[in-house]
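Researcher: I've been going back and forth with a colleague about how GntR family transcriptional regulator might be arranged in three dimensions. Neither of us has a model we trust, so I'd like an independent prediction. The organism is Herbaspirillum aquaticum, in case that matters for your notes. Sequence below.
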Amino acid sequence: MRAMKTSSSSKPQVSALASMAAAARGKTTLADHVTSVLAQQIRSGEFAPDVRLPSEMELTERFSVSRTVIREAISRLKSEGLVGSRRGSGTVVLPVTQATPFRLDLNVDDGRDSIQAVLRVIELRRGVEGEMAALAAQRRTRAQNLAIQQALQAIDAAAAAGRDGVQEDFAFHAAISNASHNPLYTSLVQFLSQFLHAAIRVARMNEARSNEFVQQVRAEHAALAQAINDGNAEAARAAALRHMEQSAQRLQAADRAFWASAEGQAAARDLARVREGG
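Model: Here is an independent structure prediction for GntR family transcriptional regulator. You can compare it with whatever you and your colleague have in mind.
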């Protein structure tokens, strides 16, 4: 059975050369390009449902890339629900109607884009964490309230030890999600963790440059924890929203010197790795 309606791999090969040039400029990766081309061919019907994809070797030759790149692209297509493995048939195309996964693309290319990427994550978190905090204030148990307080103390301990506190910050927000008693919030926070870790690290690296910022973050976390402890849903919602708004403002206040520093460059690489799925 022919895998494609059209023969010849000239277009993918030409595109592969363009992809290599783009990758060299840091604008995309080879895996990005291969994934994009194959996804477009599947969605357009060029690869029909239930048809087996070309072998790894064939795709490697067609795109002039390594097997590692092809495997990464296939993995991404599987995560998007566009292809699947079938015993005896290898990798086959799934009906497009089955492709319903959710993913985030931060599109990070440089320092300024890194700022915009983090701002997008913060904007997304704003709506999620406001309602999550309100529910936590209404529903938290004594044990869950204690977990939130302990997570807050862990952030302080990390700061005192000179660590960035990224893991502790995430644990604090995760404790709040658990206290909401809505497993969907918990699942969403877990899904966002891959983006939150990089975003929080960027924010923390910037905040560490200013003692005033450090104190602001501490006060915001304390206000949020106190509102949940008091069972005040409106105050908890307001505290969470303020924390997100202030986080965005602090990030926007980051000067170019931060992004030119070793810390800023490391932060940009963190976000780029999140975008590339690694």
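Researcher: What would you highlight for our discussion?
Model: I'd start with this: The two ends are 35 Å apart (CA to CA). After that, consider the following. Confidence is low (pLDDT under 50) at residues 1-26, 108-112, 274-278.
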